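Handoff note, outgoing to incoming analyst
You'll be picking up this chain. Sequence as last confirmed:
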Amino acid sequence: MLEKYIEKFRKGTQYVNIVSAVTKEELTPVHEISEDYLNQKAVKFIPASGAATRMFKDLYAFLEDQEDTEFIQQFFANLEQFAFYGDIKGLVESQGWDKDTLEGRLAIAECVVKSHLNYGSLPKALIKVHAYEDKMTTPIDEHIYEGEQYLNHGPGSLHFTIGEEHEDLFNQYVNQVLADKEHIDITYSFQKEETNTLAVDMDNEPFRLEDSEILYRPGGHGALLENLNDLDADIIFIKNIDNVCHKSRVEDTIQSKKMLASIGMEVKQQIDAYILDILADDYDLEAIGAFLRDTLNIVLKTELTKKRAWELLNRPLRVCGMVKNSGEPGGGPFLVDNGDYVDLQICEKSEIDLEDEEKREIFESSQYFNPVDVVCFVKDHKGEKFNLLQYTNEDRYFISEKTHEGRKLKALEHPGLWNGSMHNWNTLFVEVPLTTFNPVKTVNDLLREGHREKVIAR
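Most recent structure output, in case you need it:
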């Protein structure tokens, strides 16, 4: 096992062979929205183990260097607009902290990230993000509300992946939230220790701790494929913990979720019908080839055979919402050459050889962006669960430089959950409104329109 990891470090990140950026031509059109998917068991899967430390990194930097940056100016100019201000307002006023003085700003920043709210140590899932007349809500509340609108009724199921260190806090909060929500079922899991990956030094030798033990680190969000694989569901909606919006703006999100699920149901039924034809030995290879090309955007370079048709059809299906590219950092949808066929893949910037001028031009021409809005169909034509671990591409791993106690190391992450881990799935890309994408990477992102109450003009 050690040698297998070390070989990956020696080889380095393996670039994907992108052929072109996805255009409207490769997107699946929407004809009508159906709720037939509700006849299947649906679960919402929310990766939520991340701490909010990075969300408040600018406040930490301010406490360290006391530098009055543009970010800090924006934060304090809008201090009263943040939902969590309601939890510190009394303290700020009783202490007489003036947000327009350095001393006051330092006291307030310390109060937010450390002493009072301790937000820098909490999971992002438990940060107060939205304010309403009667309460303040966290991403957990917003994910539940959103799920109530498009998951099965009674119970609607949500599954969070959380850090073990946050288990008690998570349970306390969820138990309160569910006190009057018997129609909602919430489960959670941890990233599995056995998915941790070897760390190496800068010479690609195992990184050893002071006691000579070898260091293993969490294997990135790709490790959550194991958690996804454990879920008992026909359909799994995936969405990041920080991508929520104010309830007054959630309608586009609800409709787009129903749209992705209904498109997936329709295509899944077509796939199953072709599979049953193959099993009955009563199939039309020409029709299957047209379906692979025109619906699934799989372009074969070799002749289609019965065996190849079976292999390409009998796989999990994912329907991925894509938004117009607005310059956010992250991955996007591309056509990728896999050797004997070209298909649709989500690729991260780090997986593309930007030193290659042609590849860089393709990457920069991308019209769409991956907001991580995925609906997965994980059962086969017999209603039996696919083993999702068999449909990953182990060569799409990530290598990054980190430090441990001041020493440099290289870390290896499993293929990303929605790129390499789902490499061998059938894929549909569908355009969804930009209003459905409201990530909170920094605290000031909460000042964006999607996190404010929508004012209806009269």
